[in-house]
Amino acid sequence: MVKEASETMTLETVRNSLNEQENTIIYSLIDRANYPLNPKMYDESASLIPGFDGSLVKFMVMETEAVHAKCGRYENPEELPFFPGNLPSSLVPSQEYPNILHLTASSINMNESIWDFYFQKLLPLISAPGEDGNYAKCAASDLNCLQALSRRIHYGKFVAEIKFIETPQDYEPEIRSQNSDSLMKLLTFEDVEETVKRRVEKKAAVYGQRVSLVEAEPGQKPKIDPAVISRLYDEWVMPLTKKVEVEYLLGRLD
Ligand SMILES: C=C(O[C@@H]1C=C(C(=O)O)C=C[C@H]1O)C(=O)O
């Protein structure tokens, strides 16, 4: 039984959560920007881990996800693994999570797309070229970024549930005819998207400031380019969140 999302969440509380999650995303990316690109870590054929068929970062993510799964992380509907195959079961007592989402939610996992844009597009924009060999810390930093982005993007499931509950009469006909384009139009708020883009750019400028007790040198650049963060949201985070919303709605009446 799906519990009415409106009992515990509103569009406002969900948007507040997305706003909070921006902070985690931006701080994680600022942390990653402390390391150079370290391309060897992502090279599938570098054989940095003997006996493991894949890159060091993949090894780090898979092994960490296995520990997190044992501690119950993926019992939480807000958390999705990047490597869901063969994850161990949770060893901890089950936690009661509010049953807000329709069952269709569990079949939606965009982490493959998130993995691809993060490593192929975003990382070269936030880290300087080069190697420092600091692989363990750097890969752990990548995982923090990936998890924060994944949680935000899949939060689209909650956003979609609330939008559906608020105006089912608008959504139901489009769901019955499986019209993805109309659903996309219905759930899009361009003014909200503009605000988000401007806000994350400003946050990146503020959080990435270099704080000094003496007069800061003029022209000091923030640790991360604020325009990149705005672009991250415009080109990847918001389109993928909306894709999650559409996928969820398409299955909402099943
Ligand atoms: C998440 C929402 O749905 C859409 C996606 C947005 C986003 O990813 O930030 C913003 C506005 C909407 O176009 C929302 O309405 O808040």
TrEMBL record:
GO molecular function, one term: chorismate mutase activity
Catalytic activity: chorismate = prephenate
Key words, A-Z: Amino-acid biosynthesis, Aromatic amino acid biosynthesis, Cytoplasm, Isomerase
Localization annotation: Cytoplasm
EC class: isomerase
EC number(s) on file: 5.4.99.5
Extent of the signal sequence: none
GO cellular component, one term: cytoplasm
Biological or metabolic pathway of the protein: Metabolic intermediate biosynthesis; prephenate biosynthesis; prephenate from chorismate: step 1/1
GO biological process terms held by the UniProt record: amino acid biosynthetic process; aromatic amino acid family biosynthetic process; chorismate metabolic process
Matching InterPro entries: Chorismate_II_sf, Chorismate_mutase_AroQ_euk, CM_AroQ_sf_eucaryotic, CM_II_prokaryot
Keyword Amino-acid biosynthesis among UniProt keywords: yes
Domain Chorismate mutase: 136-245
A Pfam family: CM_2
Name of the molecule in the record: Chorismate mutase
Natural source organism: Trapa incisa
